[in-house]
């Protein structure tokens, strides 16, 4: 939908507790507020949805266009979102389904809203299905949320690995001597996404797990120390990006290679130590 039209729909939605008139009369929509992958600014988008138990499913259909919608790109970098449904408003974790799970969920969406099948036919792009997991209002994370957090952690790491590989290819390209604006933007987007991911772990996930698994205190100390090391490496990479026009992209390569090595080691250690904790029964909780 055009931006101005979106604004009018959002205003009507909030004024009338989710009830819409005009072309959307009788429709049931939600508002999804995401954090911009590049800008870091909040963006709100009206979306259709399908209920799946206590989860909500949204599809990155973009009307059947050949480009993923911006909100989908945003949640890959910043998966914590705000959902408005009627007069209710809550925070959620947005997790993109993959493989067989995505196909099963898309079939469920099409069964409830057949129009999405037409959107899929209109493009060769596989329409992403994103699952919205409501974040409890309290600081307690129930056991059935932990598997979703484990999936989210690995998915974010895989996205960051992909971004690292893309940056490596860009720096090695024959035309890298004339570093493009797009490659510079890509690099800064990666830096911002990684910093946000680590900040969220330090502020939320790690303190929660440290309370539940006090015997793992050494693991969290190491991970926080690695976050500090990575943050310093990111600062160095940003400084190089700021003067790459003067120095050329070859100056980026040594710092980038060090950062990539540190991140691969960090991701592997974190997945080996943290994912099993998220998959395990929480102490003092029903198994």
Spatial arrangement of strands, main beta sheet: 2-1-5-6-7-4-3
| Beta-strand residue percentage | 5-15%
**SS elements, strand count:** 7
Write down the overall geometry.
globular
Sketch the topology as an H/E string, one letter per element. Answer: HEEEEHEEHHEHHHHH
CA gyration radius, whole angstroms = 21 Å
Largest sheet: 7 strands, antiparallel
SS-derived structural category: alpha+beta
Binned, the helix content reads 55-70%
The pLDDT mean sits at 76
Helical stretch tally: 9
* End-to-end Cα distance: 46 Å
Point out poorly predicted stretches.
138-143, 176-180, 283-287
Write the layout of secondary structure elements.
Elements: H1 3-15, E1 29-35, E2 42-48, E3 50-52, E4 55-59, H2 70-77, E5 80-85, E6 88-96, H3 99-112, H4 115-121, E7 129-134, H5 143-172, H6 181-212, H7 217-242, H8 244-247, H9 252-279
Antiparallel strand pairs: 1-2, 1-5, 3-4, 4-7, 5-6, 6-7
Helix pairs in contact: 5-6, 5-9, 6-7, 7-9
Characterization of the model:
Strands 2-1-5-6-7-4-3 form a 7-stranded antiparallel β-sheet, sandwiched between helices. The protein is of the alpha+beta class and 287 residues long. The chain has helices at residues 3-15, 70-77, 99-112, 115-121, 143-172, 181-212, 217-242, 244-247, 252-279, and strands spanning 29-35, 42-48, 50-52, 55-59, 80-85, 88-96, 129-134. It starts with a helix and ends in an 8-residue tail after the last helix. α5 packs antiparallel against α6. It is 56% helix and 15% strand.
């Amino acid at each position: 939908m055009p931006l101005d039209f979106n604004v009018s729909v959002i205003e009507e939605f909030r004024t009338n507790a989710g009830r819409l008139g005009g072309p959307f009369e009788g429709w049931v929509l939600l508002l999804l507020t995401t954090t911009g992958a590049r800008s870091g600014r909040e963006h709100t988008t009206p979306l259709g949805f399908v209920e799946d138990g206590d989860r909500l499913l949204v599809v990155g259909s973009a009307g059947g266009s050949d480009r993923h919608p911006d909100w989908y790109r945003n949640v890959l970098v910043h998966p914590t979102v705000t959902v408005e449904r009627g007069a209710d408003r809550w925070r959620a974790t947005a997790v993109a389904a993959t493989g067989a799970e995505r196909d099963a969920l898309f079939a469920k969406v099409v069964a409830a809203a057949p129009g999405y099948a037409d959107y899929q036919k209109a493009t060769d792009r596989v329409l992403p299905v994103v699952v919205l997991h409501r974040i409890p209002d309290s600081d307690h994370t129930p056991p059935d949320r932990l598997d979703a957090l484990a999936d989210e952690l690995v998915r974010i790491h895989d996205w960051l690995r992909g971004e690292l590989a893309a940056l490596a290819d860009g720096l090695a390209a024959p035309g890298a001597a004339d570093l493009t604006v797009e490659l510079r933007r890509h690099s800064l987007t990666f830096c911002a996404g990684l910093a946000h991911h680590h900040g969220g772990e330090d502020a939320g996930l790690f303190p929660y797990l440290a309370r539940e698994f006090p015997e793992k205190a050494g693991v969290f100390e190491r991970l926080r120390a690695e976050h500090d090391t990575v943050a310093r490496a990111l600062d160095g990479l940003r400084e190089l990006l700021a003067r790459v026009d003067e120095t050329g992209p070859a100056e980026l390569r040594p710092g980038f290679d060090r950062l990539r090595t540190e991140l691969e080691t960090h991701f592997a250690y974190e997945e080996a130590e943290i994912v099993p904790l998220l998959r395990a029964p929480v102490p003092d909780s029903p198994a």
